[in-house]
Amino acid sequence: MSWIRIYFRLAGASLRSQMQYKFNFILSTLMVFLMFGLEFMTVSIIIYKFDGIKGWSVYEAGYLFAIMMFVRASYRMIAGEVNGFEKYLVQGMLDQLLLRPMPVLLVLVTRNFRPMAGELVLGSILISICLSHLMEKGQVTLWAIPGTLAVIISGTIITLSIGLATATVGFWTHRIDELQRITDNAATIASQYPLSIYPKWMRITLLTIIPMGFTSYMPSLYVIRGELGLWILPATMLLAAILLLGALRFWKHGLAHYQSTGT
Questions:
Q1: What does the DSSP assignment read for 31-78?
Q2: Which of 35, 68, 163, 167 is the Cys-Cys partner for 192 at CB 3.0 to 4.6 Å?
Q3: Between 144-173 and 232-256, two packed helices, what is the crossing angle to 10 degrees?
Q4: Residues whose CB falls within 8 Å of the CB of residue 30, separated by 6 or more in sequence, listed in order
Q5: Cα dist. 99→27, 96, 103, 166, 259 in Å?
Q6: Distance, first Cα to last Cα, the chain
Q7: Phi, psi at 92, each rounded to 5°
Q8: What single DSSP character describes residue 182?
Q9: Is the pLDDT of residue 255 over 80?
Q10: pTM over 0.70
């Protein structure tokens, strides 16, 4: 519990320092809101024009888009510096963290804490619109709301685990930006849409090698379409827990093999 209190204190301090520049925060939030909003509008118009995509309506596809927006925002909010870990290895900044009397990962995830308000607000609006429409059609019930929360939580944990494992690879390779573009950026964007639209090799990759398909698509098959069965939700949560434990052990192993740049 003491580490949890420290986390919130450090994250709060980081947030307060950023809020000294309120105009920058408001402008960046507005730009993110408009950017992702325009992206979704473009995609939704195309899907609506063709009366769906691989059997997925514009509201079902919008639900997946909103889930991934929440997952990405939660991951960047909880552990944004994990995504930019290369600079700590190349510039020797990790040495400073090793001198702190607390776990390196705890210090790392509280640096540059950002609330990601634009993504969270837009994601909330999209999920509300999509679920409301699906409820009116009788496709889902109020049970979809707690089901959606479970999908967001498990998806965030899976994304965090993949990001942490990718960062850990840097203890041996040092350069990980290109790898992160695959495991984080590309995989996240691909998971915004139904996996059924992709070729078989890509679906297999997103369900096994980089299991981002379990962040939104697989559990959403049950939440909004009633497919697979209720078992997929606890199975996804179990997978998320296994991936997180594995990523933490891998991180500990990698940190033990860290060699400073000497800068």
A1: HHHHHHHHHHHHHHHHHHHTT-BTTB-HHHHHHHHHHHHHHHHHHHHH
A2: 68
A3: 20
A4: 118
A5: 36, 5, 10, 23, 14
A6: 35
A7: 75, 15
A8: I
A9: yes
A10: yes
Percentage of the chain lying above the pLDDT 70 cut: 95
- Integer Cα distance of 160 and 139 in angstroms: 31
Q: CA 119 to CA 103: how far, in whole Å?
A: 29
What is the mean pLDDT of the segment spanning 185-196?
86
Using CA atoms in the order 126, 130, 133, 136, what is the torsion angle rounded to 10 degrees? -120
Q: What is the pLDDT of residues 65-115, one digit of tens each?
A: 999 989 988 888 888 788 888 888 888 788 888 887 778 888 888 777 777
- Separation between Cα atoms, residue 82 and residue 69, nearest integer Å: 18
How far apart are the C-alpha atoms of 110 and 255, rounded to whole Å?
18
pLDDT of residue 38: 83
- The pLDDT of residue 149 is 94
d(CA 30, CA 20) in angstroms, rounded, equals 17
pLDDT tens-place string over residues 131-177: 999 999 888 888 999 999 999 999 999 999 999 999 999 888 888 88
Domain spans of the chain? 2-256
Structure token digits, residue 137: 């059609």
CA–CA distance, 258 with 89 (Å, rounded to integer): 9
Q: Coil, strand or helix: which one is 100?
A: coil
The tokens for 15 are 């947030």
